[in-house]
Specification:
Elements lengths: L1 E4 L5 E2 L22 E5 L16 E17 L8 E9 L6 E2 L9 E2 L7 E22 L8 E8 L4 E5 L3 E13 L1 E10 L4 E7 L5 E7 L2 E7 L11 E6 L9 E8 L2 E6 L2 E6 L7 E9 L17 E9 L2 E2 H6 L5 E4 L2 E2 L9 E4 L6 E5 L18 E6 L5 E8 L4 E7 L2 E7 L5 E6 L23 E6 L20 E8 L2 E2 L2 H5 L5 E3 L1 E3 L18 E4 L4 E4 L5 E2 L5 E2 L5 H6 L5 E5 L10 E7 L4 E5 L7 E3 L8 E4 L6 H10 L2 E11 L13 E4 L5 E2 L13 H5 L19 E2 L2 E3 L9 E4 L8 E6 L2 E4 L7 E4 L6 E3 L7 E9 L5 E7 L4 E8 L2 E7 L5 E6 L10 E8 L2 E6 L5 E4 L14 E3 L11 E8 L2 E2 L2 H5 L5 E3 L17 E5 L2 E5 L15 E4 L4 E5 L4 H5 L7 H6 L3 E10 ...
Antiparallel strand pairs: 1-2, 1-4, 3-9, 4-8, 4-9, 5-6, 5-7, 5-8, 10-21, 10-24, 11-20, 11-23, 12-17, 12-21, 13-14, 13-20, 14-15, 15-16, 17-18, 18-19, 21-22, 25-33, 25-36, 26-32, 26-35, 27-33, 28-29, 28-32, 29-30, 30-31, 33-34, 37-38, 39-40, 41-42, 42-43, 43-53, 44-52, 45-51, 46-49, 46-50, ...
Length: 1261
């Protein structure tokens, strides 16, 4: 086998790689392979230090299937290669770089001259030529290389189609009907469009496989097109840049309606619609084109131009039959059986700052460089790129004239500068970077000018700056080929050899463009776009956010919404977080005792049933507002669920009284028949009256089974979670005279969240909980709460052979997130300004994806690190996941961990702890349960013998954050809260790393307040940003409520009017709204609105209550309301985490709070509340004045009970105060001021310690 080093000298190998001394005879030993090639086993190869082409090329003499490679340094030297790239080619030209499964193109090499490093290729390659390109080498010496190649012989049948030819495979009968099809082939194409396979039948069945704009599209229809038009049609596309003149593999497998479509190891699973499940093709199947019947050489669509290899249809080798000229195959046009190689030579421009190709004005003229050419001049080339901007060509003309060809925002812009002030411009094309079609664009352009001195493709070298050659934008990054100057093709091989022109940061004879959106790393239907070096995910409208649309913007449950201070209303919840399930809308009923989640369906009205029998029963299918998968996750997360089935009957039985056969039943979420009608014990054919032992006839288990002519009731409450919800009701005994049944299925109702407080306590450093291996190859998010008094400990660890992930408390105030995916260990650290081992709950969230890694601790600034664009990206773990410790039983965590969530799945710590020594389920303390100790966003803080409520971020005050904070506004009064720009944001404008911006980046606002006024128009609240966005809540001229959102200055603002009637009526009104992406909910009015965009309020500048003056860019109606201000009472104002009204009262004089006019703290909110309550009570008295005497007697009894309870309460209060005074005199339980933990770094100037002290009172249990 021949070896050609980069300097062009032909060498022959003499021995294999060895770990001892070289030998003079080839000794390759290959296990389980057919071919083994050894290269330069003696001294090895090393290039000259002046050599510009540093690569080693191996000719395998024929195409073989290469499965592995190995490298070794040069014998007896300090020369070796530490990393390299591998390229391959069929003909020694038009090379392609081999990439691993994670798209990495770099192979780790040697660390010394003697060791052998083997690499088994994750996918084999079929090639004749290999190139080893050193990327890194010995720091002690130079490049030194010995190589070994492993593989098997490869035989194939090839057909070459010239774009005007095809092969027809004719069936033995008129029509072929199949329920199973397998089509496999390899192809390489010279064009972006063309039909590879086509077949169709007279009834409308068809199958077509075609290239379309560089992607491979499969179209198939299994239905009768006349009877069911388009019902069975399905189309799917896979792949990109498939016209790169390299081999690509295709496999189509169909069984009935199920189809597996694979292109280059990427597979899509699809299912056809319609009724048919067989493919009926008439007469023939065509390959390479669709010939028009009766017109030889005429085709309906663009034909395929390129080569096909090993083409099989249901086990039949089509090309072999064609080569042997079998009668089943008919050849149209010129089909040959050897693959012609492309003649175009590509060049890859690698750098956006330093890549250029310098060429003379007329490459055909000897010594033409720099001499100038007069007369007509032209240039043309093909290009392909992902970038929307770049300099394609600069050409110096006579005197100071020059030509510039730019790619500007996806368009070509040709500018002829006649002087510094005079120019002419032409713009053509659109989206020529291929961003919209996710493919490269290929286009020819001809440039005409007068005298050309020299020109550059693309970009300008620094040395030419004095001649006016400067890059007005980024230099072009991408591929060019077929460069023609004055009708003379440019020989890029001469450029590569240094004979013609000059170049920098250029690869010749290879197009290195790659599709970074294939596979698509954007999750949850995020749209992928890309540049040369990176990709971007557009998460608009998905309900997810983050670099790869991984993180849900929604809360996981109604209980979680309660913790954010929300009142009852409709909410989007995402029970599996970053998992695969999409969010769903539910109603959250926030009662005093419980938070109920309500999921409705289409059968909420009572249904009357007559005339049904067991043979022809009445059937009602229930469709819920959530999918069954979503419902299953919601039920699993809830503590308790129930569903009421109201069932009334008249001479209609539920069970046959003779043999107990069910006459009516319901189906659970799994489609199983259930015959019990109440309770939580499945499998018992009973109704609620039987469980309560109060049926009208105790001989039966249901009231309806008594079969009476009167209306009876068997309403029941179903509460066995594994069977809920009811998906279908079947009624079968209403066909007798006088028989009738009426039923109504209530909504699914659940309360509680099992995972919010799912926790475990670790008492021994050697103890831990273990779970199955973390499944987090491409993306991972880990979140949990912890509290501890220990200075350090590992929260979580999972190991692989080389990879790992670990989250730990590495110091009393330091949390560390570390992992390894093959690019070297990555460590992110967040350091808190207060100790984290203070026995209080702290929040940790660590995330890693293919684009970046981040670590968040409490509300401290987010730490993040971008991933290398061409590095390894798959995290490969194989050990168990350890919680609270490590496999070595060292550095274990001592304390409590709760709500541990990994990729949307909450680990059941509580259950696992019950069977693990050194670990107990639950966490001790008053703040370790769902008990509502602190309300309205109040934070529960543990004390040595009690707890306190921190109301810092609540709009309320008092011991339990329930006291209204109200202010009376007069004419001209305003309160403005100014948001400081965080320091971390100022350092890195592209990332918004403080908590407020992290929250805003989720396109989420939570607003709540109460107000009372008689004046309109009025400005209630306005929020503005540094990007001239705003949000405003106003009362219009007629007193109606209006909500304004201006998120995109290029569009009109979104304006919503939830109420048409006037709210300026002197009554107290509560407004609560929250936005999640494009969805905005106004809770107390139960209205949902859709915004035109899901952009966030980016970098909030200020929030103002009351009068606003001089705001540029604000609409006229908002300005009018702002100029009028607000006159009346504002109470308990909350904006996300912020309570601006409370901050204004407690922090007057702060640089962040500005108060204009007279601001008077009052109890107007409470007074209005009491007034409305008294008014309501009066109405109730009028309404109930006609009640019976029994009700009056009951009221008197209730009053007596109330008096007794009041006396008891007074006595308990007296004892409590006595105990409290006594405890405050005891030094051992004296409360110290607990320093407030600031929620955001921009609030460090606010001293809220006094407000915290005022709002706290310790309770001892």
């Amino acid at each position: 086998h021949d070896v050609i080093p980069g300097n062009g000298v032909l060498l022959h190998f003499t021995s294999c790689l060895t770990t001892s001394v070289p030998v003079t005879k080839s000794q390759c030993v290959c296990v389980c392979v057919c071919v083994c090639v050894c290269v330069l086993g003696g001294g090895g190869w090393t290039p000259e230090r002046t050599d510009r082409l540093r690569w080693l090329q191996v000719d395998l003499r024929e195409r073989v299937e290469v499965t592995a490679v190995a490298t070794q340094g040069r014998f007896g030297s300090s020369d070796w290669v530490s990393s390299y790239a591998l390229q391959y080619s069929d003909a020694g030209r038009a090379w392609k770089q081999y990439r691993l499964d994670d798209s990495t193109g770099t192979f780790p090499g040697n660390a010394n001259a003697d060791g052998v490093v083997h690499h088994k290729l994750s996918h084999s390659i079929r090639t004749r030529y290999l190139r080893f390109l050193p990327l890194g080498w010995s720091a002690e010496g130079w490049i030194g290389l010995r190589v070994e190649v492993y593989g098997c012989s490869y035989k194939s049948d090839v057909a070459d189609f010239d774009g005007r030819s095809s092969l027809l495979y004719r069936f033995n009968q008129k029509s072929m009907s199949t329920v199973k099809d397998v089509i496999s082939l390899q192809f390489k194409s010279q064009r972006a469009d063309g039909v590879l396979v086509h077949g169709e039948g007279q009834r409308g069945d068809y199958i077509t496989l075609e290239l379309h704009q560089g992607s491979l599209a499969l179209h198939i229809n299994l239905d009768d097109a006349k009877m069911h038009p388009s019902s069975g049609h399905v189309s799917v596309s896979l792949g990109s840049l498939l016209d790169d003149q390299h081999w690509h593999s295709v496999l189509i497998e169909r069984f009935n309606k199920q189809i597996n479509f694979t292109v280059d190891r990427l597979t899509r699973h699809i299912r056809t619609g319609g009724l048919g499940d067989s493919l009926e093709v008439d007469y023939e199947l065509s390959f390479g084109g669709i010939p028009l019947p009766g017109k030889p050489g005429t085709f309906l669509r663009k034909n395929f131009h390129g080569c096909m290899e090993n083409l099989y249809y249901n086990g039949v080798n089509i090309i072999d039959l064609a080569k042997r000229k079998k009668p089943q195959i008919y050849s149209v046009g010129n089909v040959t059986f050897s693959c012609s190689e492309p003649t175009a030579v590509s060049a890859t421009f690698l750098s956006s700052s330093s890549s250029f190709l310098q060429l003379p004005a007329d490459p055909a003229a000897e010594g033409a460089e720099g001499e100038g050419v007069s007369g007509r001049w032209s240039a043309g080339f093909h290009f392909r790129t992902w970038n929307r901007d770049g300099l394609l060509l600069w050409s110096g003309l006579q005197r100071s004239e020059r030509l510039l060809l730019l790619l500007a925002d996806g368009q070509l812009r040709l500018t002829h500068y006649r002087s510094a002030v005079q120019s002419a411009e032409i713009t053509v094309g659109e989206d020529l970077n291929g961003l919209q079609a996710s493919r490269g664009s290929e286009i020819d352009h001809e440039l005409n000018s007068f005298i050309v001195i020299v020109f550059f493709l693309p970009g300008c070298p620094a040395a030419m700056a004095n001649q006016g050659c400067r890059n007005p934008t980024l230099a072009f990054q991408g591929c060019m080929r077929t460069i023609i100057i004055n009708n003379h093709p440019v020989d890029l091989y001469r450029v590569q050899q240094g004979i013609l022109g000059n170049y920098s940061e250029l690869q010749i004879d290879i197009c290195g463009i790659r599709d970074r959106c294939l596979p698509n790393y954007c999750e949850h239907d995020g749209e992928c776009s890309q540049s040369w070096s990176n990709f971007h995910c557009d998460c608009s409208g998905t309900g997810y956010t983050g670099a790869t649309c991984h993180n849900s913007i929604f809360e996981p449950s109604c209980e979680a919404h309660r913790l954010t201070g929300s009142a009852s209303g409709f909410f989007s919840i995402d029970p599996d977080g970053s998992g695969p399930l999409k969010p769903t809308v539910v109603y959250c009923n926030m009662t005093e005792e419980k938070v109920w989640m309500v999921v409705g369906h289409n059968g909420s009205a009572p249904v009357s049933v007559k005339g049904s029998s067991l043979q022809k029963p009445h059937v009602m299918k229930l469709n819920y507002s959530a999918t069954l998968q979503q419902l299953s996750t919601l039920l699993h997360r809830a503590e308790h669920c129930q569903q009421e089935v109201l069932y009334r009957c008249r001479k209609s039985r539920l069970f046959n009284t003779w043999d107990g056969t069910p006459l009516s039943w319901w189906l659970d979420r799994g489609g199983e028949r259930r015959t019990y009608w109440g309770g939580f014990l499945p499998g018992v054919q009973q109704c609620s009256c039987s469980l309560a032992e109060n049926c009208i006839d105790m001989n039966y288990f249901c009231n309806c089974d008594a079969d009476r002519n009167s209306w009876e009731n068997d309403t029941g409450l179903l509460s066995y979670k594994d069977h809920l919800p009811v998906t279908e009701i079947v009624v079968g005994d209403t066909n007798r005279t006088g028989s009738e049944a009426v039923y109504k299925v209530g909504p699914l109702q659940c309360y509680g969240d099992r995972f919010l407080w799912n926790s475990a306590s670790f008492y021994q450093e050697s103890s831990y909980l273990h779970f199955p291996t973390l499944q987090a190859e491409l993306s991972m998010d880990i979140s949990f709460y912890f509290k501890t008094t220990a200075p350090s400990g590992v929260f979580l660890e999972n190991l692989g052979v080389k990879h790992f992930v670990r989250v730990e408390l590495s110091g009393p105030s330091v949390v560390t997130f570390a992992f390894e995916v093959g690019n070297g260990p990555v460590v992110l650290t967040v350091k808190s300004h207060i100790p984290l081992n203070d026995k209080q709950w702290h929040y940790v969230r660590a995330e890693r994806n293919v684009k970046e890694a981040s670590l968040q601790v409490d509300q401290l600034p987010l730490r993040f690190l971008e991933a290398p664009s061409d590095g390894h990206n798959r995290l490969q773990l194989n050990g168990q996941l350890f919680i609270g410790g490590t496999a070595s039983r060292q550095k274990g965590f001592l304390g409590c961990i709760r709500a541990l969530n990994v990729n949307g799945l909450t680990l059941d710590l509580d259950e696992r702890a019950k069977m693990t020594p050194g670990v107990s389920s639950g966490c001790p303390g008053h703040c370790s349960s769902q008990n509502r100790l602190c309300h309205n966003r109040g934070r529960c803080i543990e004390k040595s013998s009690g707890y306190v409520c921190d109301c810092t971020h609540s709009a309320y005050g008092g011991p339990h954050c329930q006291k209204e904070v109200s202010v009376s506004f007069e004419s001209g009064t305003s309160v403005t809260y100014t948001f400081q720009e965080p320091f971390s944001v100022m350092r890195n404008k592209s990332r918004q790393s403080s908590a407020i911006y992290a929250q805003s980046s989720k396109s989420r606002e939570n607003v709540a307040f109460r107000f009372l006024t008689t004046k309109a128009p009025a400005m209630l609240m306005t929020v503005t940003t540094y990007h001239q966005q705003y949000m405003a809540v106003i009362l219009a001229h007629n007193g109606s409520l209006q909500i304004w959102y201006q998120l995109n200055r290029e569009k009109q603002p979104d304006v919503f009017t939830p109420t048409q009637h006037s709210l300026a009526n002197g009554k107290l009104h509560r407004i609560q709204l929250h936005r999640e992406g494009r969805d905005m909910y106004v809770q107390d009015i139960n209205q949902k609105y859709r915004l035109s965009t899901d952009r966030e309020l980016n970098m909030i500048r200020s929030l103002t209550l009351g009068k606003v003056t001089g705001r540029a860019g604000v609409d006229e109606e908002v300005l009018q309301a702002g100029s009028r201000g607000f006159i009346g009472c504002l109470s308990s104002v909350q904006f996300n985490h912020l309570a601006p009204l409370k901050a204004a009262i407690l922090n007057r004089g702060s640089s962040l709070v500005s108060v204009l006019g007279n601001l008077v703290e009052s109890n107007c909110g409470e007074l209005a509340d009491k007034s409305s309550s008294r008014s309501l009570s009066g109405k109730e008295r009028l309404k109930n004045s006609e009640q019976s005497d029994s009700a009056v007697i009951g009221g008197l009894i209730a009053a007596l009970v109330l008096v007794a309870l009041s006396v008891l309460a007074v006595m308990l209060r007296f004892l409590y105060r006595y105990r409290l005074q006594h405890s405050q005199q005891t030094p051992s339980v004296k409360e110290k001021d607990h320093p407030s933990q600031p929620e955001l770094n921009y609030r460090t100037q606010l001293s809220l310690h006094s407000s915290i002290r005022d709002s706290r009172k310790e309770y001892f249990i």
